Amino acid sequence: MNSFALKFIVLWGWRRLFVSALAGIVAALAAPPIYLIVALLFSLPVLVWILDGVNAQSSSLWNRAPAAFMTGWAFGFGYFAPNLYWVSEAFLVDADLFSWMIPFVVVLFPLGLGIFHGFATLCASVFWTSGIGRIAVLASAFTALEWVRGHIFTGFPWATIGYSAGAFEGLEQLAAYGGVYGLTFLVVRAGACPAVLAADDEEAARGMSGRIFAMTAILLATAVIWIAGAARLSGSQPAFEEEVRVRIIQPNIAQNRKWDPKYRTEIFNALLELSDMATNPEVTGVKDVTHVLWPESAIPFLLEANPKAKEQIAELLPPNVTLITGALRRGVAGQVGAANDTRARNSVLVIDHEGNTVASYDKSHLVPFGEYLPFASFLEPLGLRKLVTLPGGFVPGGGPRSIPLNNAPSVSLLVCYEIIFPRAVIDRGQRPGWILNVTNDAWFGDSIGPRQHFAQSRMRAIEEGLPVVRVANTGISAVIDPHGRVLKSLGIGRRGVLDSPLPKTIPPTFYATFGDLIVLMVILFGLGLSLFLSIVNRSALARNQSIS
User: Is residue 153 domain-shared with residue 96, that is, in the same domain?
Assistant: First the structure.
């Protein structure tokens, strides 16, 4: 194993960067929806060995810092490029305007995100040690920088390495205790542990049997967590709210038709027809459900300016049946903003059986380059534009809040992208009974993007201990219980109706209660463990040298 590892340790210059990028590409196979988690057992040890070479080249951090950063940056580019290629699909919807940007998107986007992995390996280099301790250092550094990536500049936590734990339902239950960032520490540490089989002078003092024991201990600890998670699942069967039955409508409208005025009536009529469709002898139409759910921006016009459409909704809904729908709206008197504020909101409306909007939620976490253009004063002169072109642009709402409903527990409404942010999906002061995520993944076709989006929705259910109901124009509509189990789903590219009782919530999870304090503790644990193991290794080496 030493001779094999040495091939990576001695890499230099462009070869080091090329192999690091290849390792990142292999690591990407572990991400959803492929979930080939074993790929981490090959890619992460290679990264460790390359960093061994980087950290051996100089005792001065200042001298080795550029190589440490560039190694992680190359790895990150390799990891993010296959994970995020699907973003380019959105630039083909209006190809005449945006297709020229695709080469920049598929290269510059992963390059930008790779910077965080670059800083992760740079930070790991600061604390780099020998043997198994360096594995804990790398896991802590990746966990810390993935957390930073999820928060800085409004955050973009997509494709966090911890999602690869979704390969095993039992293993991902750890998210109830440490969130997806806790899972990141777990999978990086387990994936990188084969690197200890190749020994430096200090680790050689342990002998091969000692190194095998160390690796086995990490893998066994991971297996114990997996078994405990499986037990958590088997010990809790889905329970449902009495007298609450939701009807999910997935209309499967192509994105190039969505806002074409000539299709407005057709789209709206399709929503009405699907909402009253008979699906089985027990559910013969809208009268047999309590809540009808339409996806993000389902209504292809401003509902508040269309009294006839509101009348049609009132005709559709029997008494005590509520419609919750995604819709664009503009600020008007009595609502968010001043009376003359005409900027658009990407909203969710709660509509009663008389066609009145009784509650609303405005998307607060807007999509960069989609709903707004960051650094607009600099980028607009270069010809860059946001994908959704609306006069006045979008204005964000005030953040998650629990909205009371008739005949159902209160709900946290999230629009599309907002579901990907751990700890930012509910009002902490007033915990809801469920999360409703309306979305439109038609932008990204039949790619891995909608499947990754769905995986993140499942993770939020586990983290919060709340059921998640997902309503997609197309993508994956589903009912997910508070343990992340998919109870019912409707796949990509299908038009249809999904009827389901509403799963009950469970008590707040450990992560829901203590949040990212747990992440900080995990990072500090990794660094402390590294220091302890380094001292143990050096003591063993000193004893061996004194004996010899």
Answer: yes
